[in-house]
UniProtKB/TrEMBL annotation:
Prp18 domain span: 133-274
Phylogenetic classification of the source organism: Eukaryota, Viridiplantae, Chlorophyta, Mamiellophyceae, Mamiellales
Any one GO CC term of the record: U4/U6 x U5 tri-snRNP complex
Keyword field: mRNA processing, mRNA splicing, Nucleus, Spliceosome
Superkingdom, natural source: Eukaryota
Cell compartments where the protein resides: Nucleus
Organism: Ostreococcus lucimarinus (strain CCE9901)
Chain coiled-coil ranges: none
Family the UniProt entry places it in: Belongs to the PRP18 family.
Main location: nucleus
Name this protein carries in UniProt: Pre-mRNA-splicing factor 18
Length: 302
């Protein structure tokens, strides 16, 4: 464990980074004590599942920060090799900025062409396979956006929350993709997911939210209070029976991947902004600023 990693973990736990006259061994020992006390305190006030989730979130942040550090080290090594390959001489090329800009532009065009090719191929697939392809593309875009962030951003409150949300979403969507591949999704869920995808592609996020609410809550009658108050049966009594199912979130796995779909809708609303009348909770600040992204998109269009 390096000194920087120990300092980062202490800050994550809300502990001072350095004490007066503290050595590296003292700092690591203090980190061990803080980690142990952190787990014990949580076990007395929260459930074991919540403690495990907090520890997993901390591990995800550390893994992400470690990945960013490795990427920066590799970039430095490549730059050093490039300087050494030139014989150590500092040669300034007037066309170098233009070459770099042209290369970046060509890379952007190549990525856009590849994305368009995948979209065209997905259009020929079955409707539920189109849903899986679209959701996977949004997950990949979100992951690329997080990879572009700096290492310092990982330890901010926004960074920790974003990384934790994305890791949870990615984990909870795996059962959905597995069910789609094996054709095990219920028909109503399959239809609802297709309607959600179509609305998201049209950037009508309010319509997508309506489809989500329709499958998550449903429109069946919910029994409120006493359903049998006399000796005579009420009209349409069978519609409010305890055995009738009013929503799709009857098991934990379905609830998790449907909530992850809702998080993808929130991300898509920021990544592909639209007018406030077609947005759900416009500029709520849950996943960035919708208004700022919309202004950027309008500026790009001129």
């Amino acid at each position: 464990l390096t000194n920087d990693e120990a300092v980062a973990r202490l800050r994550t736990l809300g502990q001072p980074a350095t004490m007066f006259g503290e050595t590296r061994e003292d700092r690591i020992f203090r980190l061990k004590v803080a980690t142990k006390n952190f787990a014990i305190v949580d076990e007395t006030t929260t459930t074991a599942t919540q403690v495990n989730e907090k520890l997993l979130d901390a591990e995800h942040v550390e893994a992400f920060a470690r990945k960013k550090k490795e990427q920066s080290l590799k970039a430095k090594e490549r730059s050093l090799k490039g300087v050494a390959g030139d014989g150590g001489a500092e040669v300034v090329d007037d066309d170098e900025p233009e070459v770099v800009e042209e290369k970046a532009l060509m890379d952007a065009f190549a990525k856009a062409a590849q994305k368009l090719k995948k979209q065209r191929e997905a259009e020929d697939k079955e409707p539920i396979d189109q849903v899986a392809a679209y959701f996977k593309s949004l997950v990949a875009e979100w992951e690329a956006e997080l990879d572009a962030k700096s290492e310092e951003w990982c330890y901010t409150h926004e960074g920790r929350q974003s990384i934790s949300t994305f890791r949870t979403l990615k984990q909870h969507l795996k059962p959905l993709f597995k069910r789609i591949k094996r054709r095990l999704l219920p028909g109503d869920v399959e239809r609802a997911l297709y309607l959600i995808m179509q609305a998201m592609k049209q950037r009508n996020y309010k319509k997508a939210a309506d489809a989500y609410v329709g499958i998550a809550i449903g429109n069946a009658a919910w029994p409120i209070g006493v359903t049998m108050v006399g000796i005579h049966a009420r009209s349409a009594r069978e519609k409010i029976g305890a055995s009738s199912q009013a929503h799709a979130m009857h098991d934990e796995e379905t609830r998790k991947y449907l909530q992850s779909v809702k998080r993808l809708m929130t991300y898509a609303q920021r990544a592909y902004p639209t007018t406030p009348s077609l947005s759900l909770d416009f500029n709520s600040g849950v996943n960035g600023s919708d208004k700022a992204e919309l202004l950027k998109a309008e500026a790009r269009l001129g």
